[in-house]
Structure formats: C-alpha cells, structure tokens
Amino acid sequence: MQTTYIETQQISFQDFKNQILEDYKLGRISREMSYLGRREVLTGKAKFGIFGDGKELPQLAMAKVFKNGDFRSGYYRDQTFALAADALTVESFFAQLYADTSVEREPASAGRQMNGHFATRSLNEDGSWKDLTAQKNISSDISPTAGQMPRLLGLAQASKIYKSVKFDGSEKFSKDGNEIAFGTIGDASTAEGHFWETLNAACALQVPMIVSIWDDGYGISVPTMKQRAKADIAEMLSGFQRKEGEFQGCEIIQVKAWDYPALLDAYARAEQFTRMESVPVVVHVIEVTQPQGHSTSGSHERYKNEERLAWESQFDGLVKFKEWILNYSIEIDGKEEVLATAEELDAIDEEAKKTVKAGQKQAWESYQKTITDLISSVLPLVENLKGQHAEIENYISQFNKLVSKAKKDVFHLVRRSLLATRGTNSAERNQLMQKYNKIFEVEKDNYSSHLYSQSQWKAENVKEVKPIYSDSSEDVDGRVVVRNNFDKIFEKYPETLVFGEDAGNIGDVNQGLEGMQEKYGDVRVADTGIREATILGQGIGMAMRGLRPIAEIQYLDYILYCLQGMSDDLATVQYRTKGGQKAPVIIRTRGHRLEGVWHSGSPMAGILNLSKGILVLVPRNLTKAAGFYNTMLKSDDPAVIVECLNGYRLKEKQPDNLGEFTVPVGKIEVTKEGADVTLVTYGSTWRIVMEAAEELGKLGISAEVIDVQSLIPFDLTHEIAESVKKTNRLVVIDEDVEGGTSAFILQQILEKQKAFRFLDSDPLTISANDHRPAYASDGDYFSKPSADDMVEKIYAMFNETNPQKYPAIF
Questions:
Q1: Contact at 8 Å (CB) between 140 and 450?
Q2: How many CA atoms does the CB half-sphere of 164 hold within 13 Å?
Q3: Which of 58, 369, 693, 708 is the most exposed place for a label (fewest CB within 10 A)?
Q4: More confident residue, 627 or 296
Q5: CA angle 118-78-49, nearest 5°?
C-alpha cells in the first residue's frame, strides 16, 4: 500500500530547511516566468499569455502529495504545479508560449495549445501505452474552464475499478487502485453545471478525487457574489459534507492561499482522506491574488479598486512566504536555527530571474532556428527565379523588410512565387516546387496530424471478420444479438465495462444488457444517475487510464448534454497532444425513428460537425452494431455507435461467432443492386429505403441501395462513386434536418469522390422536416421521410427526363 505525505514527514531540520528553500526558489522561478511571459507577449514575440502568478504556494503544497501514478485534470493556471511535478521546464514553458511545434521542446501539445495548457505524454511514439504508474500524469488541459471536471471523475473512478479489475498489462495503469485524481478549477467556474454534476457524482460514487478551487474573488472582472448563490463556495457545499458512518458526500477544507504551513497541512489531510479512505475532498483555497490580472488581454486595474489592489500586494503568496521564512526560528540543542536570511532569499530571487531568462533565451533561439533554417533552405531557391518573372524580386524585397518572420511568411513567399511562374517549366522552378512539397508535408504533420489514431491499432486497420451462420443459427430479437455479443465481450476483455442510466440492474431499457450485471458484477456493468455529461467524463477518464469503457447515453437526443465534452475534450485528445494521449472510449446510444419529440431525433449533423476526431458509426441493425463494438475494442480510436431504437424487437439471425465478427469502419454495403439510381442512406431509414426501392421496381425503376454504415470515416474506397458511375443518378436519404447529414454525404460523394462527373440528373436529398418529429406514428410519417415520399420524389427525377415513360403522379 502507498504511504501518504503525512506518514513520510519525519525529517531532519536540515532537510526541512532545504525543502522550504527549494519551494521558495521554485515559486520565484514560476513567478518570474509569469512576469517575463507577459513581457514577451506585450513586445510582440508571442500572441497571448495567461499565467499562474498568485497561485504558487497552494500548487507547491498540492504537488507534495502528488505521486507517481496520480493524475491531474485542470485548466490553464497551474504552471507552478507542473514545474513541481517535473511536467514542465522553463524552456518548455516558453516554447509553448511561442507555439514551437517541436514535441521534444514542447511535449504538452507541440505548439497546438496556447500557453498554460499542460500535459504529460502517456504514449510511446508508436501509440502504445507507457507505464503510467512510473510517472506523474497530467491529462491534457482544455480552455473551457469547467470542461475538465467530467474527465476528472473518470480518472478518479479508474482507481476504484482497479481495486477489483485486473487484466494483462493492468500493472502499467494502476498499483491496486491507490492513485488519486487531482482537479483544479477557478472559483468563478464553479458556477458551471459541469462542476456541480461532477462533484455530485463523485460524492455518490465515493471516488479518490481532490478538487482544488483557486478563489481570487473574480471571474475575469465579475466578482464572486455575482457568480454564485453564496460568495463562499465552501458554505454552499456544506450540504455535501459527509457524515460519520455514511458512505456519501465529501470532505471540505478551506485554507488561505498565502498561508504556507496551513496549505501543507490542508493537502496532507486531503491526501489522507482520499488515498486511505477513497473519499472525495474539496480544497477551497481562498484569498488568492492575481498580480498581473486575468491575461495579457487587459489590466485588472480596470475592475479592482485601489483598496483591493493594495491588499493583493500585501497578501501576495510569495511576499507572505518570504515573511514567514524570515520570521521562522527554532531552538535545537540550545541553538537557534533559522531557515534563511534576507540576503539569502534575495540571492534566490536573483538566481530565479537568471534561470528564467536563460530558459527563455534558449527557447526563443531554438524556436527561431526552426524558422531561420526554413528561410535558408527556401530563399536561395526563390532568388533563383528572379529572372523568370519581374515580381519575384519585389516579393523577396517585401519578405526581407519583415521585422519578424514566421513560417506563414516563408510559405506565402514560396506560393506567390510559384503562382507568378505558373506555366514555366524550368529546373529552378521544379527545384522550388520539390522543396515546397517537402516542407508542406512537414508542416502538415506539425499542424494537422493525429486527429485520429495513427497507430497500428487505428480502427481502419481492423480486419473484417464476417458473421458466420449455420443451420442452427436462430432468429432472435435484435436486442438478443447485441446482448449475447456483450456477454462474449465481457468474457473476452476483462478491462471492458459499461455504465449508464438503467444499464445495470434492469439491463438497459431495451434489454441489450439483460443479465450482464448479475453475471459480471456492478463494477463492470453499472447504473449511473441521470447525468450525461459525467457519464461521458467517466468514459474519457477511464479510457485515459487503460480501461475500455462503454459509456451509455440512453437516447441519441440526450447526447446533446455531453456534446461539449465530446467536442472540446474527447474529439481533440490525440490532436491537442500530437499523439501524446488517447481515450478510446466507446459511446453507446440509440436513436432515430420512434415516437415523440425527445425520443426520435437524429441530430447527426451536429455530432458530425462538432466531433471530428471521434468515429461516427451508424449500423442499420443490431448485428451490425455488435460487429462495430467488436471492431472498436480492437482499436484505439474513440467512437459513437448509434443503435437503431426501433430495431430491438425485430428478428435477426444470430451469428455463431459472437464476440469475434467485425464490421469494418469506412466501408459501405450495397444491400440491393440496381441500374437506374443510387440511393444512399444509413441507420433506421435503411429499412424504409429498401421498401421504397421495391416499390420503385414495380414502376420500372431499378434502384441500387447503399448503406453507408460509417459516417466517420466515410466510404474510404469510394465505392459510392462507382455505383453512381453505373446508375448516373444519386439520391441521399436521411432523417436528419434539411442540409444536415445529407449535405455532408453529398460533399463527400460529389466533391471528394468527384461523382458529379457521372450525373445525368441533379443530385437529390430527401430529409426530415426542420422541426422535431411530432408524436406517434402519424407524427413520424409527416415529419420524416416516408416510403411514399421517397417513391414520389425519386419517380419525379425520371418523370423530368422521360415524361412519356414516367408520367407525372400529381
């Protein structure tokens, strides 16, 4: 069992003194980074700056109880903590400020995130997991300042799960579940629903989580009293305080940001509660100062009065820390011992300034060298074109006049030069063109790689294993296929677990998990409260710690509650760390055609547009859905799988190889061959399209029906274009709103696959009305595309071209 900070603090005075002075030095280094960082922005060397000055002491105290294997989920104010946890250096801090695209120099995001967004690298270069128990871990920060909270819940719950769940390789993710998840949030962001939902869930689940609230009294310029019902968040949270003998609630500790000994005690107690008892703890850090204001975008003098500014100067944490050090003395063996003299602390201050300046200088020179090397490799090639176009010399002159040059300026020069010399076939131009192609590939990788997995485990690499049927294969309800497939999954993958509203005891509302909790226990098959944002957050955090969670959102309409987390967090994990972290969570949901405004929505376009980075899989039946679960559990991509809500009671033949067969992503299926028109659809609408195709056949129109199956990725081998080449007509049928998913599908087919070349008629989309579907079967009929709609509109295409053969219906 791991020891806690309290249990290891039997040290000598000299060691104690050294620790204090190391903390003071680190605090001063962090402060100087904030000061110099602001100057770098205001002098134009960086675009924007947001810093952690004023929060140095509580973060030093928090870092003391942060151990290998622990995780932090925070926001952009925690530079001192990152320094203390060895997740940040002065050089990497400034490299991020300058947006250096080197992973080696800026390992948190390779220049993809603005400064203050920290992360450790959980993955090796090939995408395999590192031993996360051998390092201190920071899950990649995001700017939405409560958006990190749902993920925090999952990071904490993973520890509780690892107390009972073991699998091959699990020792790389947890040591018997003794790890803590640390969260940080600004006091104003506690007004966000994500904060309350996360804390509520943590108190119900009793997970090892410490949340630190940095309370400086403002949310940018808006004071706390206008943010919440009570200015004191600890007072508001008093109802969450656990009672003796109950396994609910949390511990609440309030402490001043400038009181160093009290901070050490607060975090030592918090760790004791959390690591030893698995109790969530809120540490409310009050009287925090913000010496430079919110960010480089403005000055806090605009909204803080002189009295407040004077108080902040007096109660600056580092000022009070210095006072405490100078006033500290203890008698040992009859001799008075002190921690440091004023001169010694002044020397530390000067050393901190030199350290920071040296680190900044190194970071700037390394960043600039990337650009100067690029210029030196390109400029001579552009100069070789001077004689081939009069404007080239002018372009070079304009480039040379730039005081500060960025990569975009180099590329602008090259592209203008290539444009000016278009049509010229010379060795000099060809040489520049070759160089351009080479450097463009480098920058494409720097700025656009890792939106999806690039490892050997990416979903596109999972081979298709077809379902096997025999004479003994039974016709069963669709929900039985998916249920029995889950049974095989849980048996095969002990790291897999599922959780959601009604997912456990009753086996989900559609019985797709019937009997699974009884068989595999309530840790792996669990009920949750009605809280979609944190159901997703549980999935993200668990997946970041090596588990394979299936986060169930009961209905597709309800996925809107967690769309922010899908978009800002899950979809960007691999991208914003340039392959440094991943969260291969599977989001299970069900939707499309049923009854009523809130149970028949198909907001697919919103999911597609906001969640690039997550695979979007839309099986037409439950066998296909089961195959997608099998596929994704072999993959390290995140995915949302939308089961057909009206398919659970429809009969399907159950495959003999449950748990083994796979459905490939990005692969369409032609479910009916035809010669006259290509009908493209997916999900529940497929059955109606097939019905319409049969009716069209009676009218002399041979329709080919294609089930997309996978929206992201979409038809990787461009088979739809081949169908259109044969039929010369294209209809996209969808139950999303007009211009929704159908627009995306059209763009993929007409633009990417260039199928417009084969069309003899305008492409047609048949979609739902723009309102939510009205209730009952009649509401569905008049709100979403019916077979009658499809037959009539597709028939009209043929009437337009050959009215004699296809006379008008109306």
A1: no
A2: 10
A3: 369
A4: 627
A5: 75
What are the distances in angstroms from CA 348 to CA 83, 162, 341, 488?
A: 17, 43, 11, 62
Buried b or exposed e, range 710-725, using 16+ CB within 10 angstroms = bbbbbbeebebbebbe
Give the separation between CA 151 and CA 135, rounded to whole angstroms.
19
Other C-beta atoms closer than 10 Å to the C-beta of 80 total 30
- pLDDT in the model for residue 181: 98
701: left (phi over 0), alpha (psi -120 to 50) or beta: beta
Q: Does the N-terminal peptide bond of residue 713 adopt cis geometry, omega within 30 degrees of 0? A: yes
DSSP 294: S
- Write the CB contacts of 725 (distance below 8 Å, at least 6 apart in sequence): 755, 758
Count of CA atoms in the C-beta half-sphere (13 A) of 592: 27
Average per-residue pLDDT for the chain: 96
Return the exposure string of 523-536: e unless at least 16 CB atoms fall within 10 Å of the residue's CB, then b.
ebbbebeebbbbbb
User: 354-392 burial, b for 16+ CB within 10 Å, e for fewer?
Assistant: ebbeebbebbbebbeebeeebbeebbebbebbeeebeeb
Report whether 702 contacts 733 (CB < 8 A). no
CB-CB contact of 233 with 192 (8 Å): no
For 120, what's the count of Cα atoms within 13 Å in the CB-facing half-sphere?
26
Facing residues of 706 across strands?
Answer: 670, 680
Q: What local confidence, expressed as pLDDT, does residue 596 receive?
A: 81
Over the stretch 137-178, which tens digit does the pLDDT of each residue have?
A: 999 999 998 999 999 999 999 999 999 999 999 999 999 999
Cα separation of the two ends of the chain? 79
Q: Please indicate, yes or no, whether the overall pTM of this predicted structure exceeds 0.90.
A: yes
Q: What is the pLDDT of residues 378-424, one digit of tens each?
A: 999 999 999 888 899 999 999 999 989 999 999 999 999 999 999 99
Return the amino acid letter for 297: S
Are the beta carbons of 150 and 198 closer than 8 angstroms?
Answer: yes
For residue 326, the one-letter residue type is L
| pLDDT class of 550 with cuts at 50, 70, 90 | very high
Q: What is the DSSP string of 4-59?
A: PTGGG----HHHHHHHHHHHHHHHHHHHHHHHHHHHHHHTTSSS-----TT-HHHH
pLDDT in tens, 614-663: 999 999 999 999 999 999 999 999 999 999 999 999 999 999 999 999 99
Separation of CA 9 from chain center: 38
Instruction: For residues 65-91, give the mean pLDDT.
Output: 97
Q: Phi and psi at residue 297, in whole multiples of 5°? A: -75, -15
- Give the whole-angstrom CA distance, residue 492 versus residue 629: 13
In 3D space, the residue among 69, 68, 73, 61 whose CA is nearest the CA of residue 183 turns out to be 73
CA distance 626 to 634: 13
* CA distances from residue 756 to 657, 713, 741, 760 in whole angstroms, order as listed: 41, 21, 18, 9
Please, what is the Cα angle at 438 between 435 and 442, to 5 degrees? 135
Q: Report how far residue 103's alpha carbon sits from residue 82's, in angstroms, rounded to the nearest whole number.
A: 17
**CA–CA separation, 735 and 764 (whole Å):** 14
3-state SS of 434-457 is HHHHHHHHHHHHHHHCCCCCCCCC
Q: Tokens in use for 732? A: 């996209």
What pLDDT was estimated at residue 1? Answer: 46
Neighbours of 419 (CB within 10 A): 11
